[in-house]
Amino acid sequence: MAAQQGEETAAAAAGWHGPGGRWQEPARSRTPGVLLPGTRDEFRAGAAPAGTGGGLRGVDSPAGTSGGLRGVDPPAGSSNRSDVSAARQIRARGLASGWLPPDIATAIAGACGTTRIRAFRLALGVSLPDVVAQVHARYEADRRRPPGFSETLLSSYESGQKRPGTEYLHYLCASYGADPADLGFDAGCLCGSSHRAPARSGDSAGAAPAREPGPPPGREPQPLPVPDLGLDTTVPMSRPDLDEDSDEVRAMLLRQMAEPGSPARQVDSRFLGAVDRIRSRVDEALVRGTVSAALLDRWEQGALSYGRQYMTAPPLRLLCDVLLDLAEVRRMWAERQPLDVSERLCRLASQLAGIAGIAMLDLGDHRLARSLFRTARTAADETGDRQLRAWVAVRESLVPLYYGDPREAADLAAAAADMAGRKPCAAAVMAPVVRARAQARLLSSGQAGRRAALERARASLDRSMDALEDLPDDQCADTALGYTERQLHFYAGDILVSLGDWQAAHRAFSRAGELYPRAEVLDCALVAFGQARCLLAADEPGQALEIGREVLTALPAEHRTEVIMQVARSFGRDVVRRDSRLPALAGYREALRSA
Protein backbone atom coordinates (compact mmCIF):
# COMPACT_ATOMS: atom_id res chain seq x y z
CA MET A 1 0.00 0.00 0.00
CA ALA A 2 2.82 2.37 0.88
CA ALA A 3 4.55 1.57 -2.43
CA GLN A 4 1.38 2.34 -4.40
CA GLN A 5 0.89 5.60 -2.51
CA GLY A 6 4.44 6.59 -3.30
CA GLU A 7 3.93 5.80 -7.02
CA GLU A 8 0.76 7.90 -7.23
CA THR A 9 2.48 10.76 -5.42
CA ALA A 10 5.32 10.56 -7.95
CA ALA A 11 3.03 11.28 -10.89
CA ALA A 12 1.10 13.94 -8.98
CA ALA A 13 4.13 15.76 -7.59
CA ALA A 14 6.33 15.80 -10.66
CA GLY A 15 4.13 17.66 -13.11
CA TRP A 16 4.40 17.40 -16.88
CA HIS A 17 4.06 19.28 -20.14
CA GLY A 18 0.61 19.20 -21.67
CA PRO A 19 -0.55 19.73 -25.28
CA GLY A 20 1.22 22.59 -27.01
CA GLY A 21 4.17 22.38 -24.63
CA ARG A 22 2.33 24.12 -21.77
CA TRP A 23 3.26 23.11 -18.22
CA GLN A 24 0.66 21.06 -16.36
CA GLU A 25 0.80 22.14 -12.73
CA PRO A 26 1.37 19.24 -10.33
CA ALA A 27 -0.80 18.44 -7.38
CA ARG A 28 0.52 20.35 -4.37
CA SER A 29 1.28 18.77 -1.03
CA ARG A 30 -0.35 20.05 2.16
CA THR A 31 3.00 21.41 3.36
CA PRO A 32 4.52 24.24 1.36
CA GLY A 33 7.42 23.38 -0.88
CA VAL A 34 10.84 24.70 0.02
CA LEU A 35 12.70 26.75 -2.53
CA LEU A 36 16.12 25.21 -2.72
CA PRO A 37 19.27 27.29 -2.83
CA GLY A 38 21.83 27.06 -5.57
CA THR A 39 22.14 28.19 -9.14
CA ARG A 40 20.69 26.53 -12.21
CA ASP A 41 24.20 25.75 -13.38
CA GLU A 42 24.90 23.87 -10.19
CA PHE A 43 21.71 21.85 -10.65
CA ARG A 44 22.54 21.01 -14.25
CA ALA A 45 25.98 19.88 -13.19
CA GLY A 46 24.32 17.34 -10.96
CA ALA A 47 25.10 18.98 -7.58
CA ALA A 48 22.01 18.35 -5.51
CA PRO A 49 21.39 21.01 -2.88
CA ALA A 50 21.95 19.96 0.67
CA GLY A 51 19.16 18.07 2.27
CA THR A 52 17.28 17.37 -0.92
CA GLY A 53 18.56 13.89 -1.68
CA GLY A 54 18.76 14.75 -5.39
CA GLY A 55 15.05 15.57 -5.72
CA LEU A 56 13.21 18.17 -7.80
CA ARG A 57 13.97 21.86 -7.40
CA GLY A 58 11.18 23.48 -5.48
CA VAL A 59 9.30 20.26 -4.68
CA ASP A 60 9.61 18.21 -1.50
CA SER A 61 10.17 14.50 -2.04
CA PRO A 62 7.38 12.35 -0.62
CA ALA A 63 8.03 10.78 2.76
CA GLY A 64 10.13 7.68 2.63
CA THR A 65 11.77 8.49 -0.70
CA SER A 66 15.15 9.95 -1.54
CA GLY A 67 14.80 11.15 -5.09
CA GLY A 68 14.92 9.22 -8.37
CA LEU A 69 12.60 9.46 -11.39
CA ARG A 70 11.14 12.94 -11.42
CA GLY A 71 12.22 13.39 -7.80
CA VAL A 72 10.89 10.07 -6.45
CA ASP A 73 12.57 6.72 -5.89
CA PRO A 74 10.30 3.82 -6.86
CA PRO A 75 10.04 0.92 -4.45
CA ALA A 76 12.81 -1.62 -4.86
CA GLY A 77 12.26 -3.95 -7.81
CA SER A 78 9.19 -2.12 -9.08
CA SER A 79 10.42 0.48 -11.61
CA ASN A 80 8.12 -0.87 -14.31
CA ARG A 81 5.18 -0.72 -11.91
CA SER A 82 6.13 2.85 -11.04
CA ASP A 83 6.10 3.81 -14.72
CA VAL A 84 2.75 2.15 -15.27
CA SER A 85 1.24 3.72 -12.16
CA ALA A 86 2.58 7.18 -13.02
CA ALA A 87 1.32 6.77 -16.59
CA ARG A 88 -2.09 5.75 -15.24
CA GLN A 89 -2.33 8.95 -13.22
CA ILE A 90 -1.22 11.12 -16.15
CA ARG A 91 -3.69 9.38 -18.45
CA ALA A 92 -6.54 9.91 -16.02
CA ARG A 93 -5.79 13.62 -15.68
CA GLY A 94 -5.27 13.98 -19.42
CA LEU A 95 -8.59 12.34 -20.25
CA ALA A 96 -10.31 14.55 -17.69
CA SER A 97 -8.79 17.60 -19.39
CA GLY A 98 -9.88 16.46 -22.86
CA TRP A 99 -6.43 15.57 -24.20
CA LEU A 100 -5.98 13.32 -27.21
CA PRO A 101 -3.87 10.12 -27.00
CA PRO A 102 -0.80 11.67 -28.74
CA ASP A 103 -0.75 14.46 -26.15
CA ILE A 104 -1.12 12.03 -23.26
CA ALA A 105 1.67 9.90 -24.76
CA THR A 106 3.93 12.95 -24.95
CA ALA A 107 3.31 13.70 -21.28
CA ILE A 108 3.96 10.08 -20.27
CA ALA A 109 7.18 9.90 -22.31
CA GLY A 110 8.43 13.08 -20.64
CA ALA A 111 7.44 12.11 -17.11
CA CYS A 112 8.54 8.46 -17.22
CA GLY A 113 11.46 8.64 -19.63
CA THR A 114 10.09 5.77 -21.72
CA THR A 115 10.00 5.25 -25.49
CA ARG A 116 7.26 6.85 -27.56
CA ILE A 117 5.78 3.53 -28.68
CA ARG A 118 5.46 2.34 -25.06
CA ALA A 119 4.14 5.72 -23.95
CA PHE A 120 1.43 5.56 -26.60
CA ARG A 121 0.30 2.12 -25.46
CA LEU A 122 0.16 3.35 -21.87
CA ALA A 123 -1.75 6.42 -23.05
CA LEU A 124 -4.38 4.11 -24.53
CA GLY A 125 -4.49 2.04 -21.35
CA VAL A 126 -4.04 -1.31 -23.12
CA SER A 127 -1.75 -4.22 -22.28
CA LEU A 128 0.77 -6.06 -24.43
CA PRO A 129 -1.58 -9.06 -24.97
CA ASP A 130 -4.34 -6.63 -26.05
CA VAL A 131 -2.11 -5.16 -28.78
CA VAL A 132 -0.92 -8.58 -29.99
CA ALA A 133 -4.55 -9.77 -30.21
CA GLN A 134 -5.53 -6.67 -32.20
CA VAL A 135 -2.67 -7.11 -34.68
CA HIS A 136 -3.57 -10.79 -35.21
CA ALA A 137 -7.24 -9.85 -35.65
CA ARG A 138 -6.36 -7.27 -38.30
CA TYR A 139 -4.33 -9.86 -40.23
CA GLU A 140 -7.29 -12.22 -40.15
CA ALA A 141 -9.67 -9.44 -41.24
CA ASP A 142 -7.40 -8.88 -44.25
CA ARG A 143 -7.60 -12.64 -44.97
CA ARG A 144 -3.92 -13.13 -44.34
CA ARG A 145 -2.14 -15.78 -42.31
CA PRO A 146 -1.56 -14.63 -38.70
CA PRO A 147 2.07 -13.51 -38.27
CA GLY A 148 4.64 -14.48 -35.68
CA PHE A 149 3.91 -11.26 -33.81
CA SER A 150 4.21 -11.78 -30.05
CA GLU A 151 4.37 -9.97 -26.72
CA THR A 152 8.12 -10.59 -26.61
CA LEU A 153 8.61 -8.90 -29.99
CA LEU A 154 6.43 -5.92 -29.03
CA SER A 155 8.32 -5.58 -25.76
CA SER A 156 11.61 -5.45 -27.67
CA TYR A 157 10.19 -2.61 -29.79
CA GLU A 158 9.18 -0.73 -26.65
CA SER A 159 12.58 -1.19 -25.03
CA GLY A 160 14.41 0.02 -28.16
CA GLN A 161 16.18 -3.28 -28.75
CA LYS A 162 14.50 -3.73 -32.12
CA ARG A 163 12.66 -1.61 -34.63
CA PRO A 164 9.43 -2.82 -36.30
CA GLY A 165 9.53 -3.52 -40.01
CA THR A 166 7.26 -1.61 -42.36
CA GLU A 167 4.48 -4.21 -42.34
CA TYR A 168 4.32 -4.61 -38.55
CA LEU A 169 4.56 -0.82 -38.17
CA HIS A 170 1.52 -0.44 -40.44
CA TYR A 171 -0.56 -2.85 -38.35
CA LEU A 172 0.63 -1.28 -35.08
CA CYS A 173 -0.37 2.17 -36.33
CA ALA A 174 -3.77 0.82 -37.40
CA SER A 175 -4.28 -0.82 -33.98
CA TYR A 176 -3.22 2.28 -32.04
CA GLY A 177 -4.98 4.79 -34.31
CA ALA A 178 -1.65 6.58 -34.66
CA ASP A 179 0.90 7.59 -37.25
CA PRO A 180 4.54 6.35 -37.19
CA ALA A 181 5.71 9.72 -35.85
CA ASP A 182 3.35 9.33 -32.87
CA LEU A 183 5.15 6.07 -32.04
CA GLY A 184 8.61 7.61 -32.40
CA PHE A 185 9.49 6.51 -35.93
CA ASP A 186 10.34 8.92 -38.71
CA ALA A 187 9.39 6.67 -41.62
CA GLY A 188 5.94 7.04 -43.17
CA CYS A 189 3.44 4.21 -43.19
CA LEU A 190 3.67 1.96 -46.25
CA CYS A 191 -0.05 2.46 -46.99
CA GLY A 192 0.61 6.17 -47.52
CA SER A 193 -2.33 7.35 -45.38
CA SER A 194 -2.86 8.56 -41.82
CA HIS A 195 -4.23 6.21 -39.16
CA ARG A 196 -5.18 8.92 -36.71
CA ALA A 197 -8.86 8.91 -35.79
CA PRO A 198 -10.57 12.23 -36.63
CA ALA A 199 -11.16 14.34 -33.54
CA ARG A 200 -14.79 14.52 -32.48
CA SER A 201 -16.38 17.71 -31.28
CA GLY A 202 -17.80 16.05 -28.20
CA ASP A 203 -14.60 14.41 -27.00
CA SER A 204 -14.01 16.95 -24.28
CA ALA A 205 -17.65 17.43 -23.31
CA GLY A 206 -18.13 17.31 -19.61
CA ALA A 207 -14.45 17.76 -18.86
CA ALA A 208 -13.55 20.28 -16.24
CA PRO A 209 -12.33 23.53 -17.79
CA ALA A 210 -8.57 23.61 -17.51
CA ARG A 211 -7.14 26.76 -15.99
CA GLU A 212 -4.16 28.35 -17.65
CA PRO A 213 -1.28 26.25 -16.38
CA GLY A 214 2.00 27.69 -15.28
CA PRO A 215 5.26 26.42 -13.81
CA PRO A 216 5.56 25.78 -10.08
CA PRO A 217 7.11 28.59 -8.01
CA GLY A 218 10.87 28.75 -8.33
CA ARG A 219 10.85 26.33 -11.26
CA GLU A 220 11.04 26.99 -14.96
CA PRO A 221 9.27 24.67 -17.41
CA GLN A 222 11.62 22.26 -19.06
CA PRO A 223 11.23 21.49 -22.78
CA LEU A 224 9.56 18.26 -23.78
CA PRO A 225 12.00 15.44 -24.40
CA VAL A 226 12.50 15.08 -28.13
CA PRO A 227 12.71 11.46 -29.31
CA ASP A 228 16.02 10.76 -30.98
CA LEU A 229 14.98 9.65 -34.43
CA GLY A 230 18.52 9.17 -35.68
CA LEU A 231 19.75 5.74 -36.63
CA ASP A 232 21.02 3.81 -33.64
CA THR A 233 23.65 1.32 -34.61
CA THR A 234 22.76 -0.84 -31.60
CA VAL A 235 19.22 -1.39 -32.90
CA PRO A 236 18.73 -3.91 -35.72
CA MET A 237 17.44 -1.89 -38.67
CA SER A 238 15.76 -2.94 -41.88
CA ARG A 239 18.01 -3.18 -44.91
CA PRO A 240 16.59 -0.82 -47.57
CA ASP A 241 18.03 -2.89 -50.40
CA LEU A 242 16.22 -5.96 -49.07
CA ASP A 243 12.92 -4.39 -48.04
CA GLU A 244 12.06 -1.79 -50.71
CA ASP A 245 10.80 -4.39 -53.17
CA SER A 246 8.82 -6.19 -50.47
CA ASP A 247 7.36 -2.81 -49.46
CA GLU A 248 6.26 -2.25 -53.05
CA VAL A 249 4.49 -5.62 -53.06
CA ARG A 250 2.92 -4.87 -49.65
CA ALA A 251 1.66 -1.51 -50.92
CA MET A 252 0.04 -3.25 -53.90
CA LEU A 253 -1.50 -5.79 -51.51
CA LEU A 254 -2.98 -2.99 -49.39
CA ARG A 255 -4.35 -1.24 -52.48
CA GLN A 256 -5.98 -4.50 -53.54
CA MET A 257 -7.57 -4.92 -50.11
CA ALA A 258 -8.74 -1.30 -49.97
CA GLU A 259 -9.93 -0.87 -53.57
CA PRO A 260 -10.18 -4.14 -55.55
CA GLY A 261 -10.17 -3.34 -59.22
CA SER A 262 -8.87 -4.27 -62.62
CA PRO A 263 -5.23 -5.47 -62.34
CA ALA A 264 -4.36 -3.71 -65.59
CA ARG A 265 -5.14 -0.35 -63.97
CA GLN A 266 -3.11 -1.01 -60.82
CA VAL A 267 0.03 -2.74 -62.07
CA ASP A 268 2.79 -0.27 -62.92
CA SER A 269 6.50 -0.41 -63.77
CA ARG A 270 7.55 -0.06 -60.11
CA PHE A 271 5.57 -3.14 -59.11
CA LEU A 272 6.80 -5.20 -62.07
CA GLY A 273 10.37 -4.12 -61.31
CA ALA A 274 9.97 -5.25 -57.70
CA VAL A 275 8.69 -8.64 -58.90
CA ASP A 276 11.68 -9.12 -61.16
CA ARG A 277 14.21 -8.06 -58.49
CA ILE A 278 12.74 -10.47 -55.92
CA ARG A 279 12.94 -13.23 -58.51
CA SER A 280 16.56 -12.37 -59.46
CA ARG A 281 17.65 -12.26 -55.81
CA VAL A 282 16.24 -15.74 -55.31
CA ASP A 283 18.47 -16.82 -58.19
CA GLU A 284 21.47 -15.18 -56.48
CA ALA A 285 20.69 -16.87 -53.19
CA LEU A 286 20.38 -20.24 -54.90
CA VAL A 287 23.95 -20.08 -56.14
CA ARG A 288 25.27 -18.75 -52.78
CA GLY A 289 23.11 -20.45 -50.37
CA THR A 290 19.66 -22.72 -39.89
CA VAL A 291 16.08 -22.45 -40.52
CA SER A 292 13.97 -24.13 -37.88
CA ALA A 293 11.89 -27.14 -38.89
CA ALA A 294 8.76 -25.46 -37.51
CA LEU A 295 9.27 -22.40 -39.73
CA LEU A 296 9.81 -24.61 -42.78
CA ASP A 297 6.64 -26.53 -41.91
CA ARG A 298 4.64 -23.28 -41.81
CA TRP A 299 6.04 -22.13 -45.13
CA GLU A 300 5.30 -25.48 -46.78
CA GLN A 301 1.75 -25.36 -45.47
CA GLY A 302 1.52 -21.82 -46.84
CA ALA A 303 2.63 -23.00 -50.30
CA LEU A 304 -0.06 -25.71 -50.25
CA SER A 305 -2.59 -23.08 -49.20
CA TYR A 306 -1.61 -20.88 -52.13
CA GLY A 307 -2.16 -23.84 -54.43
CA ARG A 308 -5.71 -24.17 -53.10
CA GLN A 309 -6.33 -20.42 -53.32
CA TYR A 310 -5.09 -20.23 -56.91
CA MET A 311 -8.48 -20.50 -58.60
CA THR A 312 -10.46 -18.40 -56.11
CA ALA A 313 -8.19 -15.52 -55.07
CA PRO A 314 -7.70 -12.60 -57.48
CA PRO A 315 -4.40 -13.25 -59.31
CA LEU A 316 -2.78 -9.97 -58.28
CA ARG A 317 -3.63 -10.49 -54.61
CA LEU A 318 -2.30 -14.05 -54.75
CA LEU A 319 0.87 -12.90 -56.50
CA CYS A 320 1.58 -10.35 -53.74
CA ASP A 321 1.18 -12.95 -50.98
CA VAL A 322 3.35 -15.51 -52.76
CA LEU A 323 6.11 -13.00 -53.54
CA LEU A 324 6.31 -11.84 -49.92
CA ASP A 325 6.86 -15.44 -48.81
CA LEU A 326 9.35 -15.96 -51.62
CA ALA A 327 11.29 -12.91 -50.44
CA GLU A 328 11.44 -14.41 -46.93
CA VAL A 329 12.75 -17.70 -48.32
CA ARG A 330 15.44 -15.78 -50.19
CA ARG A 331 16.60 -14.16 -46.96
CA MET A 332 17.03 -17.59 -45.45
CA TRP A 333 19.40 -18.42 -48.27
CA ALA A 334 21.69 -15.55 -47.37
CA GLU A 335 23.74 -18.04 -45.34
CA ARG A 336 24.64 -21.59 -46.22
CA GLN A 337 22.12 -24.00 -44.71
CA PRO A 338 22.44 -27.68 -43.73
CA LEU A 339 21.78 -30.06 -46.58
CA ASP A 340 18.32 -31.19 -45.47
CA VAL A 341 17.19 -27.61 -44.82
CA SER A 342 18.63 -26.44 -48.13
CA GLU A 343 16.72 -29.13 -50.02
CA ARG A 344 13.42 -28.15 -48.37
CA LEU A 345 14.08 -24.47 -49.10
CA CYS A 346 14.77 -25.30 -52.76
CA ARG A 347 11.54 -27.27 -53.03
CA LEU A 348 9.62 -24.46 -51.35
CA ALA A 349 11.17 -21.82 -53.59
CA SER A 350 10.37 -23.87 -56.69
CA GLN A 351 6.72 -24.19 -55.71
CA LEU A 352 6.34 -20.52 -54.74
CA ALA A 353 8.09 -19.28 -57.89
CA GLY A 354 5.94 -21.64 -59.98
CA ILE A 355 2.70 -20.37 -58.42
CA ALA A 356 3.91 -16.80 -58.92
CA GLY A 357 4.58 -17.66 -62.57
CA ILE A 358 1.03 -19.02 -62.95
CA ALA A 359 -0.39 -15.81 -61.45
CA MET A 360 1.81 -13.65 -63.71
CA LEU A 361 0.62 -15.69 -66.70
CA ASP A 362 -2.97 -14.87 -65.74
CA LEU A 363 -2.03 -11.18 -65.49
CA GLY A 364 -0.61 -11.28 -69.01
CA ASP A 365 3.11 -10.52 -68.50
CA HIS A 366 4.55 -13.54 -70.26
CA ARG A 367 8.16 -12.28 -69.99
CA LEU A 368 8.05 -12.16 -66.19
CA ALA A 369 6.10 -15.41 -66.12
CA ARG A 370 8.90 -17.11 -68.06
CA SER A 371 11.51 -15.61 -65.70
CA LEU A 372 9.66 -16.91 -62.66
CA PHE A 373 9.37 -20.37 -64.18
CA ARG A 374 13.12 -20.32 -64.92
CA THR A 375 13.74 -19.54 -61.26
CA ALA A 376 11.39 -22.36 -60.28
CA ARG A 377 13.28 -24.70 -62.61
CA THR A 378 16.65 -23.70 -61.10
CA ALA A 379 15.36 -24.40 -57.60
CA ALA A 380 13.79 -27.70 -58.68
CA ASP A 381 17.07 -28.82 -60.26
CA GLU A 382 18.75 -28.37 -56.86
CA THR A 383 16.35 -30.86 -55.29
CA GLY A 384 16.90 -33.61 -57.86
CA ASP A 385 13.15 -34.33 -57.75
CA ARG A 386 12.08 -35.34 -61.26
CA GLN A 387 8.38 -34.93 -60.50
CA LEU A 388 8.88 -31.37 -59.25
CA ARG A 389 10.95 -30.53 -62.33
CA ALA A 390 8.22 -32.01 -64.52
CA TRP A 391 5.54 -29.92 -62.74
CA VAL A 392 7.51 -26.72 -63.40
CA ALA A 393 8.05 -27.66 -67.07
CA VAL A 394 4.40 -28.49 -67.77
CA ARG A 395 3.21 -25.30 -66.05
CA GLU A 396 5.71 -23.28 -68.05
CA SER A 397 4.35 -24.80 -71.27
CA LEU A 398 1.12 -22.84 -70.74
CA VAL A 399 2.97 -19.56 -71.38
CA PRO A 400 3.64 -20.22 -75.09
CA LEU A 401 0.28 -22.00 -75.34
CA TYR A 402 -1.56 -18.74 -74.56
CA TYR A 403 0.96 -16.09 -75.65
CA GLY A 404 3.47 -17.66 -77.99
CA ASP A 405 4.16 -20.52 -80.38
CA PRO A 406 2.11 -23.71 -79.82
CA ARG A 407 5.10 -25.71 -81.08
CA GLU A 408 7.18 -24.53 -78.12
CA ALA A 409 4.31 -25.46 -75.80
CA ALA A 410 4.17 -28.96 -77.29
CA ASP A 411 7.94 -29.41 -76.89
CA LEU A 412 7.89 -28.26 -73.24
CA ALA A 413 4.97 -30.57 -72.47
CA ALA A 414 6.75 -33.50 -74.10
CA ALA A 415 9.88 -32.79 -72.03
CA ALA A 416 7.73 -32.65 -68.89
CA ALA A 417 6.21 -36.03 -69.71
CA ASP A 418 9.69 -37.54 -70.11
CA MET A 419 10.83 -36.11 -66.76
CA ALA A 420 7.72 -37.37 -64.97
CA GLY A 421 8.39 -40.94 -66.04
CA ARG A 422 5.95 -43.71 -65.17
CA LYS A 423 5.37 -42.84 -61.53
CA PRO A 424 1.86 -41.39 -60.98
CA CYS A 425 2.07 -37.62 -60.49
CA ALA A 426 0.20 -34.49 -61.59
CA ALA A 427 2.70 -33.67 -64.35
CA ALA A 428 2.42 -37.18 -65.84
CA VAL A 429 -1.33 -36.66 -66.27
CA MET A 430 -1.25 -33.02 -67.35
CA ALA A 431 1.67 -33.07 -69.82
CA PRO A 432 0.11 -35.26 -72.56
CA VAL A 433 -3.10 -33.21 -72.41
CA VAL A 434 -1.25 -29.89 -72.75
CA ARG A 435 0.71 -31.33 -75.66
CA ALA A 436 -2.54 -32.37 -77.34
CA ARG A 437 -3.96 -28.85 -76.82
CA ALA A 438 -0.90 -27.31 -78.47
CA GLN A 439 -0.99 -29.74 -81.41
CA ALA A 440 -4.72 -29.08 -81.92
CA ARG A 441 -4.04 -25.34 -82.27
CA LEU A 442 -1.45 -26.02 -84.96
CA LEU A 443 -4.13 -27.49 -87.25
CA SER A 444 -6.23 -24.83 -88.96
CA SER A 445 -9.82 -25.39 -89.95
CA GLY A 446 -10.20 -27.76 -92.91
CA GLN A 447 -6.54 -28.78 -92.84
CA ALA A 448 -5.72 -32.37 -93.77
CA GLY A 449 -4.85 -34.65 -90.91
CA ARG A 450 -7.44 -33.37 -88.46
CA ARG A 451 -9.25 -36.71 -88.29
CA ALA A 452 -6.03 -38.56 -87.41
CA ALA A 453 -5.16 -35.85 -84.88
CA LEU A 454 -8.64 -36.19 -83.35
CA GLU A 455 -8.17 -39.94 -82.93
CA ARG A 456 -4.79 -39.44 -81.27
CA ALA A 457 -6.25 -36.76 -78.97
CA ARG A 458 -9.11 -39.05 -77.89
CA ALA A 459 -6.67 -41.84 -77.10
CA SER A 460 -4.47 -39.45 -75.11
CA LEU A 461 -7.48 -38.17 -73.15
CA ASP A 462 -8.54 -41.71 -72.32
CA ARG A 463 -5.06 -42.53 -70.99
CA SER A 464 -5.00 -39.33 -68.93
CA MET A 465 -8.40 -40.11 -67.44
CA ASP A 466 -7.15 -43.54 -66.39
CA ALA A 467 -3.93 -42.05 -64.95
CA LEU A 468 -5.94 -39.46 -63.01
CA GLU A 469 -7.56 -42.22 -60.98
CA ASP A 470 -4.12 -43.37 -59.78
CA LEU A 471 -3.09 -39.94 -58.45
CA PRO A 472 -2.77 -39.46 -54.67
CA ASP A 473 -5.71 -37.62 -53.13
CA ASP A 474 -3.71 -34.48 -52.37
CA GLN A 475 -2.62 -34.10 -56.03
CA CYS A 476 -6.02 -34.64 -57.62
CA ALA A 477 -7.66 -32.00 -55.37
CA ASP A 478 -5.23 -29.13 -55.97
CA THR A 479 -5.63 -27.00 -59.08
CA ALA A 480 -2.14 -25.42 -58.99
CA LEU A 481 0.27 -27.95 -57.51
CA GLY A 482 -1.86 -30.90 -58.68
CA TYR A 483 -4.31 -31.71 -61.46
CA THR A 484 -8.06 -32.24 -61.07
CA GLU A 485 -10.83 -33.98 -62.98
CA ARG A 486 -12.55 -30.67 -63.74
CA GLN A 487 -9.35 -29.33 -65.31
CA LEU A 488 -9.05 -32.46 -67.45
CA HIS A 489 -12.61 -32.04 -68.77
CA PHE A 490 -11.93 -28.36 -69.52
CA TYR A 491 -8.74 -29.24 -71.42
CA ALA A 492 -10.57 -32.01 -73.27
CA GLY A 493 -13.27 -29.59 -74.41
CA ASP A 494 -10.62 -27.16 -75.70
CA ILE A 495 -8.88 -29.93 -77.67
CA LEU A 496 -12.06 -31.37 -79.15
CA VAL A 497 -13.60 -28.06 -80.26
CA SER A 498 -10.29 -27.06 -81.87
CA LEU A 499 -10.31 -30.31 -83.86
CA GLY A 500 -13.93 -29.90 -85.00
CA ASP A 501 -15.80 -32.30 -82.69
CA TRP A 502 -18.00 -29.65 -81.09
CA GLN A 503 -20.62 -32.13 -79.81
CA ALA A 504 -18.06 -34.05 -77.69
CA ALA A 505 -16.47 -30.73 -76.71
CA HIS A 506 -19.84 -29.42 -75.51
CA ARG A 507 -20.28 -32.51 -73.33
CA ALA A 508 -16.79 -32.07 -71.88
CA PHE A 509 -17.33 -28.36 -71.13
CA SER A 510 -20.71 -29.12 -69.56
CA ARG A 511 -19.14 -31.72 -67.28
CA ALA A 512 -16.38 -29.28 -66.33
CA GLY A 513 -19.01 -26.63 -65.56
CA GLU A 514 -20.77 -29.06 -63.22
CA LEU A 515 -17.55 -29.84 -61.34
CA TYR A 516 -16.21 -26.31 -61.01
CA PRO A 517 -17.47 -24.37 -57.95
CA ARG A 518 -18.67 -20.86 -58.73
CA ALA A 519 -15.89 -19.43 -56.56
CA GLU A 520 -13.28 -20.54 -59.14
CA VAL A 521 -13.99 -17.49 -61.26
CA LEU A 522 -11.18 -17.69 -63.79
CA ASP A 523 -11.69 -21.24 -65.04
CA CYS A 524 -15.48 -20.90 -64.90
CA ALA A 525 -15.17 -17.97 -67.30
CA LEU A 526 -12.88 -19.96 -69.60
CA VAL A 527 -15.32 -22.91 -69.55
CA ALA A 528 -18.17 -20.56 -70.51
CA PHE A 529 -16.15 -19.23 -73.45
CA GLY A 530 -15.49 -22.86 -74.46
CA GLN A 531 -19.23 -23.49 -74.53
CA ALA A 532 -19.65 -20.32 -76.64
CA ARG A 533 -17.08 -21.71 -79.09
CA CYS A 534 -19.13 -24.91 -79.36
CA LEU A 535 -22.27 -22.90 -80.18
CA LEU A 536 -20.33 -20.94 -82.78
CA ALA A 537 -19.17 -24.21 -84.37
CA ALA A 538 -22.80 -25.41 -84.28
CA ASP A 539 -23.79 -22.32 -86.34
CA GLU A 540 -25.43 -20.50 -83.43
CA PRO A 541 -23.35 -17.28 -83.37
CA GLY A 542 -26.06 -15.18 -81.70
CA GLN A 543 -26.29 -17.46 -78.68
CA ALA A 544 -22.52 -17.75 -78.59
CA LEU A 545 -22.11 -13.95 -78.45
CA GLU A 546 -24.73 -13.67 -75.73
CA ILE A 547 -22.84 -16.15 -73.54
CA GLY A 548 -19.61 -14.26 -74.11
CA ARG A 549 -21.25 -10.92 -73.28
CA GLU A 550 -22.74 -12.30 -70.05
CA VAL A 551 -19.36 -13.66 -68.96
CA LEU A 552 -17.62 -10.31 -69.50
CA THR A 553 -20.39 -8.35 -67.80
CA ALA A 554 -20.53 -10.57 -64.70
CA LEU A 555 -16.75 -10.89 -64.30
CA PRO A 556 -15.55 -9.09 -61.10
CA ALA A 557 -13.08 -6.30 -61.80
CA GLU A 558 -10.24 -7.97 -59.88
CA HIS A 559 -10.58 -11.10 -62.08
CA ARG A 560 -10.54 -9.29 -65.43
CA THR A 561 -7.07 -10.51 -66.19
CA GLU A 562 -5.22 -10.50 -69.49
CA VAL A 563 -5.62 -14.24 -70.03
CA ILE A 564 -9.43 -13.82 -69.96
CA MET A 565 -9.24 -10.80 -72.26
CA GLN A 566 -6.99 -12.75 -74.64
CA VAL A 567 -9.56 -15.55 -74.92
CA ALA A 568 -12.42 -13.04 -75.28
CA ARG A 569 -10.66 -11.16 -78.09
CA SER A 570 -9.81 -14.41 -79.89
CA PHE A 571 -13.44 -15.52 -79.67
CA GLY A 572 -14.58 -12.16 -81.08
CA ARG A 573 -12.22 -12.53 -84.04
CA ASP A 574 -13.60 -16.02 -84.74
CA VAL A 575 -17.15 -14.61 -84.82
CA VAL A 576 -16.15 -11.76 -87.16
CA ARG A 577 -14.51 -14.20 -89.56
CA ARG A 578 -17.79 -16.13 -89.68
CA ASP A 579 -20.11 -13.12 -90.05
CA SER A 580 -19.04 -9.53 -89.38
CA ARG A 581 -22.61 -8.16 -89.75
CA LEU A 582 -24.19 -9.93 -86.79
CA PRO A 583 -26.32 -7.49 -84.70
CA ALA A 584 -25.12 -9.04 -81.43
CA LEU A 585 -21.52 -8.10 -82.24
CA ALA A 586 -22.09 -4.49 -81.13
CA GLY A 587 -23.17 -5.55 -77.64
CA TYR A 588 -20.27 -7.97 -77.32
CA ARG A 589 -17.75 -5.33 -78.38
CA GLU A 590 -19.17 -2.88 -75.85
CA ALA A 591 -18.90 -5.49 -73.07
CA LEU A 592 -15.32 -6.20 -74.14
CA ARG A 593 -14.42 -2.50 -74.05
CA SER A 594 -16.01 -2.09 -70.61
CA ALA A 595 -14.09 -5.08 -69.27
Task: Describe what is shown at a glance.
With 595 residues, the chain is mainly α. The protein has 26 helices and 2 strands.
Amount of helix: 55-70%
Which structural class do you get from the secondary structure elements?
mainly alpha
The CATH architecture designation of one domain is Orthogonal Bundle
The CATH superfamily of one domain appears as lambda repressor-like DNA-binding domains
How far apart lie the N and C ends?
Answer: 71 Å
Determine and state the CATH class of one domain: Mainly Alpha
Mean pLDDT: 76
Count helical runs. 26
How does the SSE layout of this entry go?
Blueprint: H1 2-14, E1 16-17, E2 23-24, H2 40-44, H3 79-96, H4 101-112, H5 116-124, H6 128-141, H7 151-159, H8 166-176, H9 240-258, H10 263-266, H11 269-288, H12 293-309, H13 315-332, H14 339-363, H15 366-383, H16 386-396, H17 398-403, H18 406-420, H19 426-442, H20 450-469, H21 485-498, H22 502-515, H23 521-537, H24 541-554, H25 562-578, H26 584-594
Antiparallel strand pairs: 1-2
Helix pairs in contact: 1-3, 3-4, 3-5, 4-5, 6-8, 9-11, 9-13, 11-13, 11-15, 12-13, 12-14, 13-14, 14-15, 14-16, 15-16, 16-18, 16-19, 18-19, 19-20, 19-21, 20-21, 21-22, 21-23, 22-23, 23-24, 23-25, 24-25, 24-26, 25-26
